[in-house]
């Protein structure tokens, strides 16, 4: 029987602690995740993400080298939000080690609010998207709400982008709201490292399974599940029905990249005549809302479809 998300009374504290270059999130006295936003990073990211049982569901590389992890795509750090073509600048593959004249950076403007509490904690932060010369072209105001639950870890994201000049989000598959999963959650494909064993499967709201059927398709949600250290776990991303171009396309790969991207139409549809770009005039805004659910079991036993219905209804 599916177990739906329902907050129980007496839940432990969600505690947020701010340091000079990061904000740590604890639930029930145990680490859940950390937001890294110091001057040494080229875009803010959450790392690692943990299940309610404490299992890490995101890749460690490039922050740490762990046996069995692919050492590819060093820009895919934990969970992040960025795009590969904003006025021609790359905010996606923008690591210092990735050379090129068009690399943008997303930097901290200020922490607006930080609240700990029972049942949930919240964080509101302002970031600036800088062109290669250091000029701000976008302001991002991001609210994250971290929910406590005995079985689940749930994070709500509310992201508002404001154009500081005319801004064009280009049509590319390299974006946008994304995370990189732990190696044991990758799909088992030929050529993958033998250990840890790859056990993952991705399923979308239409019931399509695997990269071949899910990648480049539009769907309200995708769940990516498998085994982590012997426990059946999954990570779902929900695309809010109010988001631009809902339902989003999915840039979800067998090697563990898991991303929602509304812009990459000509890549996803294999049609060069398509143009998924979007332009904001100065002062124009884009708002994106997502929910990330880290759950035990697969998408059916976790009740992901019903969870999404509640999310879409504002619950």
Molecular structure report:
Strand 14 and strand 15 form a beta hairpin. The protein is mostly beta strands and 315 residues long. The chain has an 8-stranded antiparallel beta sheet. A 5-stranded antiparallel beta sheet has the order 4-3-2-1-7, with no helix packed on it. It has a 4-stranded antiparallel beta sheet with strand order 5-12-17-16, with no helix packed on it. Helix content is 7%, strand content 40%. Residues 1-5 have low confidence and may be disordered. It has helices at residues 211-214, 265-268, 299-302, 304-312; strands at residues 13-18, 22-27, 30-36, 45-47, 79-83, 105-115, 117-118, 120-130, 136-148, 153-163, 167-169, 175-180, 201-204, 221-228, 231-239, 249-250, 257-261, 278-280, 285-296. It has a single domain, classed as Beta-galactosidase, Chain A, domain 5 (Distorted Sandwich), CATH 2.70.98. The longest helix has 9 residues, at 304-312.
| Share of residues in helices | under 10%
Mean pLDDT: 95
Strand content: 35-45%
CATH class: Mainly Beta
CATH architecture: Distorted Sandwich
Order of helices and strands: EEEEEEEEEEEEEHEEEEHEEHH
Largest sheet: 8 strands, antiparallel
β-strand number: 19
Compute the CA-based radius of gyration.
18 Å
Please tell me the total number of domains: 1
Shape: globular
What structural class do helix, strand and pairing data support? mainly beta
What is the straight-line distance between the termini? Answer: 21 Å
The tally of helices reads 4
Strands of the widest sheet, in order across it, are: 6-8-9-10-19-15-14-13
